[in-house]
Amino acid sequence: MQKFVALILFLFVVTACSGGRLPPDATGRQVYGAFCASCHGDDLGGGFGPALGPGSDVVDMTDEFYRFTIEHGLGRMPSFGSSLTDEQVDRVVAYVREVQATSGGG
């Protein structure tokens, strides 16, 4: 059973990391969709990973916290520093902040 769970988690992480085929000029929404939505939800409402939207525990975190977490990982979240450019990370952070703001958060 433990091997099965480990296999499922491995496949999940590999699938989550497979978004590396984005064009260099991909928007924050596109990058989020490829790398983040499978865990954090299409609408930032959470799922396997925590919610990022309005009212979530991380709304008040700094942009630097978001960048560091995306690049280096945290807890169950894998690092994406080798998969994303600095610009793509910045675009994801900007997209998350935009959704939070337009949804009445942060």
What does this molecule look like?
The termini are far apart. By secondary structure, the protein is mainly alpha-helical. The protein has a single domain (2-102), classed as Orthogonal Bundle (Cytochrome Bc1 Complex, Chain D, domain 2). The protein has 5 helices and no strands. Helix 2 (28-35) packs across helix 5.
Summarize the structure.
The chain is 51% helix and 0% strand.
Question: What's the structural blueprint in terms of helices and strands?
Answer:
Elements: H1 2-16, H2 28-35, H3 37-40, H4 63-72, H5 86-102
- Structural category is mainly alpha
The domain tally reads: 1
Question: In CATH, what is the class?
Answer: Mainly Alpha
CA gyration radius, whole angstroms: 14 Å
Mean pLDDT: 85
> In what range is the share of β-strand residues?
under 5%
Q: Please count the beta strands (DSSP E, at least 2 residues each).
A: 0
Work out the helix count. Answer: 5
Q: Summarize the main sheet.
A: none
The H/E string reads HHHHH
Unreliable residue runs: none
Instruction: Using the 3D structure, state the CATH architecture.
Output: Orthogonal Bundle
The rough form would be described as globular
Helix proportion of residues, in percent?
40-55%
